TrEMBL record:
It is an enzyme of class 5 (isomerase). Pfam families: PseudoU_synth_2, S4. Residues 3-64 form the RNA-binding S4 domain. Belongs to the pseudouridine synthase RsuA family. SMART domains: S4. InterPro entries: PsdUridine_s_RsuA/RluB/E/F_cat, PsdUridine_synth_cat_dom_sf, PsdUridine_synth_RsuA/RluA, PsdUridine_synth_RsuA/RluB/E/F, PsdUridine_synth_RsuA/RluB_CS, RsuA_PseudoU_synthase, S4_RNA-bd, S4_RNA-bd_sf. The keyword RNA-binding applies. Residues 252-411 are annotated as: Disordered. It catalyses: uridine(2605) in 23S rRNA = pseudouridine(2605) in 23S rRNA. Residues 372-389 have a biased composition (Polar residues). It comes from the Bacteria. Responsible for synthesis of pseudouridine from uracil-2605 in 23S ribosomal RNA. This is Pseudouridine synthase.
Amino acid sequence: MSEKLQKVLARVGLGSRRYMEEVIAAGRVSVNGQVAQVGERIEPGDELRIDGRKVQFQIEDEIRRRVLIYYKPEGEICSRNDPEQRPTVFDNLPAIANDRWVMVGRLDINSTGLLLFTNDGELANRLMHPSNEIEREYAVRVMGEVTPQLKNNMLRGVVLDDGPAKFESFSEIGGDGINRWYQVVVKEGRNREVRRIFESQGLKVSRLLRTRYGTVILPRELRTGRWMELDKNDIDNLAKAVELKPRQGTGLYGMAKRRNERMQEKPLAARRGGFLRQQRRDTEEAAQNTGFEPRERRQDGNSYGNREPRQDGNSYGNREPRQDGNSYGNRERRQDGNSYGNRERRQDGNSYGNRERRQDGNSYGNREPRQDGNSYSNREPRQDGNSYGNRERRDENAPRKPFGNKSFKKF
């Protein structure tokens, strides 16, 4: 089975289809040694080169179809690259070898909920195309009262800047006060369509959460910022909704299947999104950990770190000079001429650090010899003839005790 050349190059991950068409038109792509043309089809046995380098490829029908569901948090954008360096929904997705993830639909930076990703470009295009009328279900929190008249207007249809739009269904699901939750369904995926329909009736959407896309429902065990891969039955039902045939090898096996089972039994913790929101949380957590709260301002207008000047004109860090002319760090000289650090010499001519010599001619560090002729460090021999350092000889005929632990048994 053949496939269009620009579609194959885009699926390999070299760029979008439109960019690949420009590359082909520039004569940089060759098939079986011949310069390729835009719209040319390629078969599995053909040799594909771009700028002289060989490109490994597979026909789409031979690739295992995969679909991920992702719980988008607030603060992430639906784009691969952002000039402002904001977090994107692709940052937390798993890598896929020799392929790329295609996003199905979009959510604005302030919206949360279900996003689909697949490696099948045809499946993604059919799910997004308005002609297939794939339903998108949202939970919406609205500020303001939704009267029956406003509800009927949104169900019959309103006119927006890019054409008419309406809700397929509209039901209330709870809420208190001025903030009420509603469940709505649309069959198109235009930019901020749900928000604009409410705004056309003078209502403001404070929160928007996508809960369903086609046959896929956002599971309860999936937390914010986490992803989960769909199994064969869910993928086949999604493909059937857009009239695509199932593929062989689709589904989860081995480690991937066990990972999904573990996530259902013990869901992973939510991964919070949004740079500004995370920065605010870090600041609040740091304040709670330290236990200090900012102190209120003093009633006299001065802060606690700044004290008012003294009435005598001196600051608190400078003390007034002493009346005797000496500073506080210098003590007056002693009357005997000696300083406090030097003591006077002893009357016997010896200094306090040197002691006089003993009358018997020995110094204090040397002791006189013992009367029995032995020195203090040598002890007299024992009466049994053995020295203190050598123990008596053992009797070889005496019974010996077993070595080691008595309770030890061989096994």
